[in-house]
Amino acid sequence: MTTSREVRLKSRPVGLPVADNFEIATVTLSDPGPGEVQVRNTWMTVDPYMRGRMNDVKSYSPPFTLGEVMQGGAVGEVIASNDAGFQVGDLVQSNYGWRDAYNAQASMVQKLNTFGLPPQAFLGVAGMPGMTAYAGLLRIAALKEGDVVFVSAASGAVGSVVCQIAKIKGHKVIGSAGGPEKVKFLKEELGVDVAIDYKATPDLMKALEEAAPEGIDVYFENVGGEHLEAALNSARPFGRFALCGMISMYNATTPPPGPRNIAQAVGKQLRMEGFIVSSHYDMLPSFHKDLAEWHAAGKITWKETVLEGVDKAPEAFLKLFSGENFGKMLVKLS
After folding, report:
1. What mean pLDDT is reported for the chain?
2. How far apart, in Å, do the first and last CA atoms of the chain sit?
3. Residue 238 to residues 72, 77, 140, 215, 265: CA-CA distances in angstroms?
4. pLDDT for residue 142 is more than 90
5. SS3 sequence, the chain?
6. CA–CA dist 105, 317 (Å, integer)
7. Position 193 pLDDT exceeds 90
8. Which of 210, 204, 187, 193 lies closest to 147 in space, CA to CA?
9. CA of 8: how far to CAs of 1, 53, 136, 173, 190, in Å?
10. Among 136, 130, 46, 52, which Cα is nearest to 331's?
11. 292 band by pLDDT with thresholds 50, 70 and 90
């Protein structure tokens, strides 16, 4: 018999989640039934979108159920198989994170071809965050020659890939991040043209004006709030905003005020489009092809923040909202 520790949602948070919203339980797994595999996870991801699933509200992803194990991306190894398509030792990717091990129908897991990348990269740069950056920048923002690109949360799992793709394609890139270490990463490793430390500047709008006196054409939105106001202020006519996330608002207990300067979107004829990456997986083959080429050419780099043990998963998740993660936040399970 295999035992597994798992993280369950104990209570729904009001505002910023706290440790008491989670509980750790230990379960015993039976042998896999017909058509099932048993997987021991090696890595799991925590992502900002999971905050919305902690609320009992209708959204693009169903809410987590109280008292039951949470869900999220994971990479693991098959340790027992009752399906002809999988062998012990196969690497697989699934949505069965937040647990050490699990049984599942074989159809619910995908064999992982790493293309020479570390397996955990498929929870970050080569996985959903990287694909989000690719689709958001190239399809939603419709990046075109000569565009000046502004990226918020630019050192994060999504933003860092946006910055690199834009630089690979020859654009001026301005990135915003919090703290000198992240700003150094943006400039020295990602090669952005201007890095703004939003925690150190008293006036983000002015800082962006100085970084891009010619204005911006593309804004990749991960933060909301004053970042969105600054982008609206600096946008050139016919600018395109790809609205990926607004993490500054996820824990608000009352609706935050909208951008005070939203009227500029009319006169500047801006296009602002929200998107969910799952609607754009037709781009996955081209993303993996391009990523493999960029990686082989040494044009793509990434950062990871790693905590160890499933019991550290809630802590890892909470650190997302204080900006303590540097790049992709991951939990190493075994």
Report:
1. 96
2. 18
3. 37, 48, 14, 11, 9
4. yes
5. CEEEEEEEECCCCCCCCCHHHEEEEEEEECCCCCCEEEEEEEEEECCCCHHHHCCCCCCCCCCCCCCCECCECEEEEEEEECCCCCCCCCEEEECECCECEEEEEHHHCEECCCCCCCHHHHHCCCCHHHHHHHHHHHHHCCCCCCCEEEECCCCCCCHHHHHHHHHHCCCEEEEEECCHHHHHHHHHHHCCCEEEECCCCCCHHHHHHHHCCCCEEEEEECCCCHHHHHHHHHEEEEEEEEECCCHHHCCCCCCCCCCCCCCHHHHCCCEEEECCHHHHHHHHHHHHHHHHHHHHCCCCCCCEEEEECHHHHHHHHHHHHHCCCCCEEEEECC
6. 27
7. yes
8. 193
9. 21, 13, 32, 40, 37
10. 46
11. confident
- pLDDT exceeds cutoff 90 at 253: no
What confidence score (pLDDT) does residue 256 get?
87
In whole angstroms, give the CA distance from residue 182 to residue 326.
7
Q: By the 8 A CB rule, do 182 and 155 touch?
A: yes
Report CA torsion sign: 246, 170, 327, 44: positive
> Do 161 and 186 form a contact (C-beta atoms < 8 A)?
no
Give me Rg for the CA atoms of the chain. Answer: 20
Distance between CA 333 and CA 17 in Å, rounded?
22
List, for residues 212-221, the tens digit of each pLDDT value. 999 999 999 9
Give, in order, the Cα–Cα distances in Å from 163 to each of 151, 241, 262. 7, 15, 25
Q: Is 136 exposed, middle or buried (0-12, 13-18, 19+ CB in 10 A)?
A: buried
CA distance 265 to 229: 11
Report, as an integer, the average pLDDT of 108-115: 92
